[in-house]
Amino acid sequence: MPKYNRILLKLSGEAMAGPARFGIDPEKVKSLAREISGIAQSGIEIGIVVGGGNIFRGIALAAQNMDRVTGDHMGMLATVINSLALQDALEQIGVQTRVMSAIQMHQVAEPYIRRRAIRHLEKGRLVIFAAGTSNPFFSTDTAATLRALEIKADVIAKATKVEGVYDKDPMVHPDAVMFENISYTEVLTRSLGVMDATSIAMCRANHLPILVFNMNTEGNIMRMVSGEPLGTLIC
């Protein structure tokens, strides 16, 4: 029995890249689509926000000398590319998917309209929210939080490359300790860097839980929505 009825899955751009950590790895995207299709077929309503780091980092050096607003718009367009790649992989295995973009580009994606997004979810379609919030100075973490609140998701599922939230970087410190549960306030005061501070504060103000889990372990998405003990719950 699924624990959640509607989730917002936040993926990093690196989740699309595979071992190279940049660009789009077709096999990695197909694998990701298969994992997601498993929970879509169980009747859970899914919204997804994908980052753009795998594409944008390839032009990051050029962007260093650019206006911040221009750089942020480039990053938003990178998320659209990732969203279309994920949509294609999902639809190839029979998952009805819609990409809704905060930046209007009618030829490639639907414009983001909240009521329409909710209607897609209610009809069993998976919705990928692209182009962030359309505003510079906001991360895709903030976009994910905003969309989760707008569609009334039960939880933000934050997919990472580690098992959960640690007291320090586990990639650098072998003695790092993982939390099973932690409060929003503690995440902020300890600067644990799970999501940006704006996102955590928005979740705290609206009582929206965040579940941080390892995306690289096969089957973890299904375990997460089934309510198995997994990762770290921020609440």
The number of helical elements comes to 9
Overall geometry: globular
CATH secondary-structure class:
Alpha Beta
Spatial order of strands in the largest sheet: 4-3-5-2-1-6-10-11-9
Instruction: Give the integer mean of the pLDDT values.
Output: 90
- Radius of gyration over C-alpha positions, nearest whole angstrom: 17 Å
Report how far the terminal alpha carbons are from each other. Answer: 22 Å
Strand content: 15-25%
- CATH H-level superfamily title: Acetylglutamate kinase-like
Please bin the fraction of helical residues.
Answer: 25-40%
- Into how many domains do the coordinates divide? 1
Biggest pleated-sheet summary = 9 strands, mixed
| Series of secondary-structure elements, N-terminal to C-terminal | EHEHHHEEHEHEEEEHHEHE
Structure, described:
The protein is of the alpha/beta class. The protein has one domain: 3-Layer(aba) Sandwich (Carbamate kinase). It is built from nine helices and eleven strands. It has helices at 26-40, 53-56, 60-63, 68-92, 114-122, 140-150, 184-189, 197-206, 220-226, and strands spanning 6-11, 45-50, 97-101, 110-111, 126-130, 155-160, 165-166, 178-179, 181-182, 210-214, 232-234. The strands form two sheets. The protein has a nine-stranded mixed sheet with strand order 4-3-5-2-1-6-10-11-9, sandwiched between helices. Strand 1 (6-11), helix 1 and strand 2 (45-50) form a beta-alpha-beta unit. The longest helix has 25 residues, at 68-92. It is globular and about 50 Å long. The two termini are 22 Å apart. The mean pLDDT is 90.
